[in-house]
Specification:
The chain is α+β, with helices and mostly antiparallel strands. The chain has 2 domains: 1-112, no CATH class; 113-389, no CATH class. Helix content is 47%, strand content 24%. The chain contains 11 helices and 10 strands. Strands 1, 2, 3, 4, 5, 6, 7, 8, 9 and 10 form a 10-stranded mixed sheet that branches. Strand 9 (319-326) and strand 10 (328-334) form a beta hairpin. The radius of gyration is 25 Å and the shape is flat.
């Protein structure tokens, strides 16, 4: 068994080193669609070789975990292990449970799968960068670029709380958080992925995917006096955000407006494609930046508007909100694709991933074309507001 394990480990390391070498040299030689398709198939064995390590260690970990659980329940010792279980914020009490096992198994998966994850990151980033540059001329744009993640800077906090504030359930929960003696908490988050940039008609345009969520954190007090929290997460915006620089004629404070009325008479976008469960877990970890825009027990309601300003926007589009900050315009385009735009799907031929990428960019360009109408509508609203206040 030891000899077999040594040979297997040697083969895995050799395969991984060769893969990293090909990924380094291939782009320098002008990596093409053919290269991407070759690498997509090449790294599949690497995934399963790496996954085999996880299966073996997961079996060993599970045996130790459940034996330790039974010992703690029936014998009542091993408190250091119990403290370890608490470290992953188990929601079921002082004794470990299935939720804790799942959380620790997911952590083990990410650690053991790190060699494959490193390859996956390099290949998907290369795909997105190359395909963005290849396809952008079809849309008449310049200076296409895949931008590094800066999750805390992509979306102003004011927009996030302006979307969450008027929602009935979050507002009710925040009211309960303010009650005397309440231990309830909440967290408002923006998860961002695939920040890209175009130059369209001389104007810089940034776009990325975002999911805005409200997490109602329900407290549970245990017999030892400690409190743990059970998460209840609801998504209130899932889509594409387009930021157009210096397009507003007037200087705006940071303001969000809800688009009302009928829209999207045609189907603008594709359906969500499927990834394997474990690949989805990897994608979720590596391709999103997480920015927390509210994490409180007693919120100041003056920061959370209780209603949306409404605006009508003609034309076919999926725009749910319009935002303005300074002279920048923000378009909030609902897609409900849960962060799966601009993907390199390992289960699809490269050409199909490329075609989906083209469709994603088409959505971006179609809504950039609506921006002039958005500017006109917002400036009219601003002028009307000034007239009423005069």
């Amino acid at each position: 068994m030891g000899i077999a394990f040594t040979i297997y480990t040697g083969a895995f390391m050799a395969y991984w080193i060769v893969t990293m070498g090909v990924l380094t040299v291939g782009p320098l030689l002008g990596g093409s669609q053919r290269f991407l398709e070759f690498m997509r198939n090449w790294i599949k064995p690497l995934f399963w070789m790496n996954f085999a390590y996880f299966i073996v260690l997961e079996i060993l970990f599970s045996l130790v975990y459940w034996i330790a659980l039974k010992l703690m329940v029936f014998v009542g010792f091993m408190s250091p292990v119990n403290s370890l279980f608490r470290f992953v914020r188990t929601a079921a009490g002082p004794d470990p449970d299935v939720l804790t096992w799942l959380a620790m198994s997911a952590l083990l998966f990410l650690i053991i799968m790190f060699p494959y994850i490193l390859v996956h990151i390099r290949l998907t980033k290369f795909f997105k960068r190359v395909v963005l540059i290849i396809l952008s001329p079809e849309f008449g744009v310049e200076k296409a670029k895949l931008v590094g993640q800066a999750p805390g800077k992509l979306l102003p906090k004011e927009f996030v709380i302006a979307i969450i504030g008027p929602q009935e359930k979050p507002r009710e929960w925040m009211k309960m958080c303010r009650e005397d003696g309440s231990k309830k908490k909440f967290e408002i988050s923006a998860r961002n992925s695939d920040h890209m940039r175009w130059k369209v008609a001389g104007q810089l345009v940034d776009f990325w995917e975002t999911q805005l969520t409200f997490n109602a954190k329900r407290p549970k007090k245990h017999s030892d006096g400690k409190i743990t929290y059970k998460d209840s997460v609801t998504t209130y915006f899932d889509g594409l955000i387009i930021r157009i620089k210096d397009v507003m004629p007037s200087e705006w404070d940071t303001e969000l407006i809800q688009v009302s009325g009928a829209r999207a008479k045609k189907r603008f976008h594709r359906y969500k494609h499927k990834q394997g469960f474990f690949i989805s877990l990897i994608e979720d970890i590596i391709n999103r930046g997480h920015a927390v825009h509210g994490n409180q027990r007693k919120p100041a309601f003056k920061d959370y508007p209780d209603a949306f300003t409404q605006i009508e926007l003609p034309g076919d589009h999926n725009i749910t909100y319009l935002g303005a900050r300074g002279t920048d315009l923000y378009l909030f385009v609902t897609t409900k694709l849960a962060g799966t735009m601009f993907d390199f799907n390992m289960n699809l031929p490269t050409q199909e991933s490329l075609d989906l990428f083209r469709e994603d960019l088409s959505l971006v360009k179609a809504h950039i074309d609506v921006s002039s109408a958005a500017v006109t509508a917002m400036e009219s609203l601003l002028a009307e507001t000034y007239q009423k206040s005069a």
